[in-house]
């Protein structure tokens, strides 16, 4: 199938409407009819402010980035991005053309 790959980056502890922001995004994606999505937690990273975040043995609660990823149709991806923008959720995203499928 032809579509897009949407990858959102956000803070693992970011909250929106009394829940974790990535949980809110997953729920909205599901309601839009997106067939699947996954959340991945980084072990280290840095963003536009240049602060390095990494997991340490004694400091497991650091605010690390997570990515929320979808392979879906272009229309669904843009509807989700519009919802995120309307709710003013702080994310960075990457969107590109993709071929996807399953066996």
Summarize the structure.
The chain has 103 residues and is of the alpha+beta class. Helix content is 23%, strand content 39%.
What do you see in this structure?
The longest helix is centred in the last third of the chain and has 13 residues, at 74-86. This protein has a domain at 1-45 and 73-91. 23% of the residues lie in helices and 39% in strands. The mean pLDDT is 89. With 103 residues, the chain is α+β, with helices and mostly antiparallel strands. The strands form three sheets. The protein has a four-stranded antiparallel beta sheet with strand order 4-7-1-8. It has a two-stranded antiparallel sheet with strand order 2-3. Strands 5-6 form a two-stranded antiparallel ribbon. It is globular, with a radius of gyration of 14 Å. A hairpin with a 2-residue loop joins strand 2 and strand 3 (19-20). It has helices at 21-31, 74-86; strands at 2-11, 15-16, 19-20, 38-41, 44-46, 52-54, 65-72, 92-99.
Task: Report strand %.
Answer: 35-45%
- The SSE string, one letter per element, is EEEHEEEEHE
Spans of 5+ residues with little confidence (pLDDT < 50)? Answer: none
**Biggest sheet layout:** 4 strands, antiparallel
Can you give the helix content as a percent range?
A: 10-25%
Query: Given the C-alpha coordinates, what overall shape results?
Result: globular
Primary descriptors:
two-stranded antiparallel sheet; N-reg_PII/ATP_PRibTrfase_C; UPF0166; 2 helices; about 25% helix; about 100 residues; alpha+beta; 4-stranded antiparallel β-sheet; globular; 8 strands; about 40% strand; N-reg_PII-like_a/b; single chain
């Amino acid at each position: 199938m032809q579509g897009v790959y949407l990858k959102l980056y956000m803070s693992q502890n970011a909250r929106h409407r009394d829940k974790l922001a990535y949980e809110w995004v997953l729920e909205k994606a599901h309601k839009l009819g997106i067939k699947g999505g996954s959340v991945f937690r980084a072990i280290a990273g840095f963003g536009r402010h240049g602060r390095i975040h990494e997991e340490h043995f004694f400091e497991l609660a650091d605010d690390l980035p997570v990515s929320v990823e979808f392979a879906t149709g272009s229309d669904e991806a843009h509807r989700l991005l519009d919802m995120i923008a309307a709710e003013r959720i702080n994310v960075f995203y990457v969107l590109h053309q993709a071929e996807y499928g399953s066996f």
